[in-house]
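Internal tracking record. Fields below are filled automatically when a chain is submitted to the structure queue. Please do not edit lines marked as system-generated. If the sequence contains nonstandard residues, flag them in the REMARKS field before resubmitting.
Queue: standard
Priority: normal
Entity type: single polypeptide chain
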Amino acid sequence: MQASSPEIVRKASSHMCAEMMSNDWQGRTYFNEGQFLTIRYEDLAQFPVQTAANIYNFTGVAMHEAVLEYIETHTKAVALEHDYYTNRSNSTATAFAWKNELHRDLRQEVENNCEKFMLIYGYKSFNE
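SYSTEM-GENERATED OUTPUT FOLLOWS
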């Protein structure tokens, strides 16, 4: 990962969290409870089958077995012999890689700027 300056992280995290809070407010303003489903990217990456099942249950559509098969084959790192190109990756590792690659002080900057969003959506502190 490319080195990031504290000022870039401060501005980017502040902007992104403000945008997500605005999106949340708009969704809750224009739709009634039960008309929208909040999906966290990390949950989708870490628990793809369960998250997909929640989405299908929310929409009232039965999840086809082919969906489960697709999820299983596209969310885990797979290296096939003579496979020169693949779009498969370990979705959990990808979703959380930035926490390990970003310096501790910069992670704290993100947490400071996104504290309200993190609280509302159940994200834990980096120190927890």
